[in-house]
Amino acid sequence: MSRIGKLPIEIPAGVTITVASDNTVLVKGKLGELKQKVDPDILVKIEGNILSVERPTEQKRHKAMHGLYRSLLSNMVIGVSKGYELKQELVGVGYRATNVGNHQLELSLGYSHNIVVVIAPEVTVAAAAEKRGNPIITLTSCDKQLIGQVAAKIRSLRPPEPYKGKGVKFVGEVLRRKAGKSQSSK
Q1: The domain 84-170 is classified under which CATH number: 3.40.470.10, 3.90.930.12, 3.90.1150.10, 3.40.50.2300?
Q2: Whole-angstrom Cα distance, residue 100 to residue 107?
Q3: Taking Cα atoms as reference points, which of 15, 19, 26 lies closest to residue 82?
Q4: Annotated domain spans of the chain
Q5: What is the pTM of this model?
Q6: Band of pLDDT at residue 3, cut at 50, 70 and 90
Q7: What are the residues facing 126 on neighbouring strands?
Q8: In this structure, are residues 144 and 73 in contact, taking their beta carbons and an 8 Å threshold?
């Protein structure tokens, strides 16, 4: 039995889940609604305020999908009830982030030009810069996959380098640093 797949998902108050005939699960909550198509072999059951995912056989394919769909559905339930938040820090001299219009982020990351990133409408972005601190970008959404994808796109514009740690990193992330050149003694 899949250790993750067999865990039941508790449905919090204010969240409604419907399973369509084509095995599409729709989760609605106070922060939005999410939809996920589930493989026809996997059975999704709702009993009271408990959601469970079951597989028909012990095949390797069914075992893999069992845990996968349970995790996806759990992330959807948490997303529409509590939401997700990711914070990224811009480390470097002159690195800045500002909101431009609706769902656009303008980044100054040490290139000869500023970079404008168009953010999906489901993700809310806020940029804050405090005195004597690095600028911080805060992303909030109910969709965990989408917010992770947007954060990865922003990070890919200037990944942290291993010598000085300059670049876009997640708040609280510990980077592996390398030693620089050492002088030879003569």
Answers
A1: 3.90.930.12
A2: 10
A3: 15
A4: 9-81, 84-170
A5: 0.88
A6: confident
A7: 138
A8: no
